[in-house]
Write a structure and sequence with these properties.
28% of the residues lie in helices and 28% in strands. The protein is of the alpha/beta class. It is globular. It starts with a helix and ends with a helix. The chain binds cytidine-5'-triphosphate and calcium ion. Cytidine-5'-triphosphate binds next to helix 4 and strand 9. GO terms for molecular function: FMN binding; metal ion binding; phosphopantothenate--cysteine ligase activity; phosphopantothenoylcysteine decarboxylase activity.
C-alpha cells in the first residue's frame, strides 16, 4: 500500500500548493478576509499526492481540513503565507489556489478596539505582497511550472488572460464566481485553463474532478 501511494508519475517531485483564505488582523479579535472554503486547493493537493508528489500544502484558515499524505503548513496572514512559500522552495511546480487578502490593516491594534472610544474606527490599509507574482517572476530557482487562479465575476476570460500576463505565471485556471453560479462554497467548478499557447474550456464538474484533471496535466507538463 505504501508503494502504491508513493508510486505514480509525480514520484520524486516537490509540488507546492497554497490554499484557503488569509486573515488580516484589525485587532486581536477582528480580521478581514476573502471568502474561501479551501475546497478546490485541498482537492488539488490530494490529487497531486495521489500521483506520488511530495506536496507542501500552505494553507490559511480554511473550512475544510487539509488532505492526508501532504506536508501541512498553517498560516494566518498573507505575509506569513509568503514566508512559508519561500521556505518551501525549491519546488518543481507551484499551484496558487489561495484567496489571499489583497490588503492588510496598517498598524493593527495590539489591544481590542472599544466602541466607546471616540466614534467609528478608521482603518488604513497597506497592500499585501503578491505571492504568485513573486514566485512567477523569480530569476533564479523558479519552479518549472507556476499555476495561478483567477476567480472573476465579470469578463472572466479577458481578466484572467491579462492576469496571466501581468503576473508571469505559466497557466491560469479561470472561473466565474458570480452570484448564481454556486461555485463559491459549492462542490462543483467550471474552469477554463489558460496557457501560453491557448485556452481550454472544461465542462462543469466536481472540484475533485477538476483537481484530478489538473494534476494529470501538471504531471504531463513536468514530463
Ligand atoms: N495571489 C497571491 N498573492 C496575492 C494575491 C493573489 O498569490 N497577494 C494569487 C492567488 O492565489 C491567485 C492569483 O494570484 O492564484 C490571482 O488572484 P486574484 O485575487 O484573482 O488576483 P489579483 O492580482 O489580486 O487581482 P484582483 O484585483 O482581481 O483581486
Ligand atoms: Ca485579489
Amino acid at each position: 500500500i505504501e508503494a502504491a501511494l508513493t508510486d505514480g508519475p509525480l514520484r520524486g517531485r516537490r509540488v507546492l500548493v497554497t490554499s484557503g483564505p488569509t486573515h488580516e488582523p484589525i485587532d486581536p479579535v477582528r480580521y478581514i478576509a476573502n471568502r474561501s472554503s479551501g475546497a478546490q486547493g485541498t482537492a488539488i493537493a490530494r490529487a497531486l499526492a495521489d500521483l506520488g508528489a511530495h506536496v507542501i500544502f500552505v494553507t490559511g484558515p480554511a473550512d475544510v481540513p487539509p488532505p492526508e499524505g501532504v506536508e501541512v503548513i498553517r498560516v494566518e496572514t498573507a505575509q506569513q503565507m509568503l514566508d512559508a512559500v519561500q521556505d518551501a522552495l525549491p519546488v518543481d511546480a507551484a499551484i496558487f489556489a489561495a484567496a489571499v487578502a489583497d490588503w492588510r490593516v496598517k498598524d493593527a491594534a495590539s489591544s481590542k478596539m472599544k466602541k466607546d472610544k471616540g466614534g467609528l474606527p478608521r482603518l488604513e490599509f497597506a497592500e499585501n505582497p503578491d505571492i504568485l507574482a513573486h514566485v512567477a517572476q523569480m530569476t533564479e530557482g523558479r519552479p518549472t511550472l507556476v499555476v495561478g487562479f483567477a476567480a472573476e465575476t465579470d469578463d472572466v476570460f479577458a481578466n484572467a488572460t491579462a492576469k496571466r500576463a501581468r503576473k508571469g505565471c505559466d497557466w491560469i485556471v479561470a472561473n466565474d464566481v458570480s452570484d448564481g453560479t454556486g461555485i463559491m462554497g459549492g462542490a462543483e467548478n467550471d474552469v477554463t485553463l489558460i496557457a501560453g499557447d491557448g485556452a481550454e474550456d472544461w465542462p462543469r464538474m466536481g472540484k475533485t474532478q477538476v483537481a484530478a484533471r489538473l494534476a494529470e496535466r501538471i504531471a504531463q507538463a513536468l514530463g
